[in-house]
Write a structure and sequence with these properties.
Blueprint lengths: L11 H8 L17 E4 L8 E5 L8 E6 L10 H9 L2 E7 L16 H5 L2 H17 L4 E6 L3 H10 L3 E7 L16 H10 L3 H15 L1 H8 L4 H9 L1 H13 L2 H12 L15 E6 L4 H14 L3 E4 L6 H4 L1 H11 L2
Helix pairs in contact: 6-7, 7-8, 7-10, 7-11
């Protein structure tokens, strides 16, 4: 499958132009915004990551590491970062490879076969591990948001520096297509998973819709949650900036993220987290079926489950006091 969509063999300047990072694609902080991105090249390879380290020199603060989800590849609000800082945490946000930013995973890893067998995921985990070592991060709280939880589930099992993982609004082995918003994404998501070439159709549809009206895109996505919608309104510029990255996401990266999120994940075995410090955090402002399925899956995996009285996808961001309480309760 997808043979026709594999990158053509290219060499020299043309290949460099296609896979290199134009400066316009790099995450940009707005004037006077303390959430500054920097380029970090972990290890000795050529891969570069864009990282927002809110308190870079505050080594006395505990790292709160966030890996960007598909729909909102942008750091949490300044208010959230400040709240975490006051309570002893250094917010570090990683703009993951291929998420509308400067660089993707190597194209040979982004074939259908290598995505499905997990080769691309293993490589991304290795890159994040290198970043953790490069930044000398210890005693990390890893925070997964929405689709970012898939890579967090792997990283939490491997990295001894990750001491607690908070899976916020995870999509773990449940039928999510009926709850996806906006509703037009549902048939596209089915095409991604079930049909040849569907992920390219979906990527084109995503680009068209978010380019036409990014505010409407996010408002429909968060329609079930009053708190999420308010967070979007309070941080409107952040969402417009995030939309520019979502618009640039490649079909291969979209397929990579969605296939690991919405298809059955065999990695998530019974009792996988019984000896791994982790907690599932779910906001109440979504469907009852989604909440019951999430609670059941958390129990199967051996993860404590906490339900917030408000919020949806952005429960961790909209309820920082609850997040801090969860971290304090479940830290080892």
């Amino acid at each position: 499958m997808f043979e026709a969509l594999k990158p053509r063999s290219e060499t020299g300047p043309r290949r460099a132009q296609r896979y290199a990072a134009p400066n316009s694609a790099l995450p940009q902080s707005r004037p006077n915004d303390p959430r500054k991105f920097e380029t970090i090249r972990p290890g000795s390879g050529t891969i570069e990551l864009q990282v927002m380290d809110y308190q870079k020199d505050a080594t006395d603060l505990r790292p709160l590491l966030i890996l960007s989800p598909l729909e909102f590849p942008y750091p949490p609000s300044i208010d959230f970062c400040e709240s975490m800082k006051r309570n002893g945490f250094r917010v570090i946000f990683v703009h993951r490879l291929g998420f509308g930013g400067a660089q993707s995973l190597p194209p040979q890893l982004m074939t259908e076969a290598n995505i499905k067998i997990g080769a691309a995921m293993v490589t991304e985990v290795a890159v994040i591990m290198s970043l953790i070592a490069h930044m000398n991060l210890k005693n990390i709280v890893l925070l997964g948001i929405s689709t970012g939880n898939t890579i967090c589930s792997r990283l939490s099992q491997i990295s001894s520096d990750v001491r607690l993982t908070v899976f916020s609004h995870p999509i773990f082995n449940q039928d999510t297509l009926q709850t996806v918003r906006p509703e037009w994404v549902q048939p596209l998501a089915r095409q991604i998973i079930l049909t040849k070439g569907g992920f390219r159709i979906a990527a084109n549809g995503l680009r068209f819709y978010i380019r036409r009206n990014p505010t409407s895109f996010y408002d429909q996505m968060y329609a079930k949650s009053v708190s999420d919608l308010q967070y979007r309104k309070d941080n409107a510029d952040d969402f417009l900036a995030a939309a520019k990255f979502v618009e640039k996401i490649s079909a291969e990266t979209l397929y990579y993220e969605v296939i690991h999120t919405m298809a059955e994940d065999s990695f998530l075995r019974d009792g996988l987290f019984l000896n791994v410090p982790a907690v599932v955090l779910a906001g109440k402002e979504t469907t009852t079926d989604w909440l019951s399925n999430t609670a059941a899956e958390a129990e199967r995996l051996g993860i404590p489950y906490v339900q917030a009285e408000s919020g949806g996808i952005f429960t961790a961001y909209t309820s920082p006091d609850l997040l801090l309480q969860v971290i304090q309760t479940h830290s080892v």
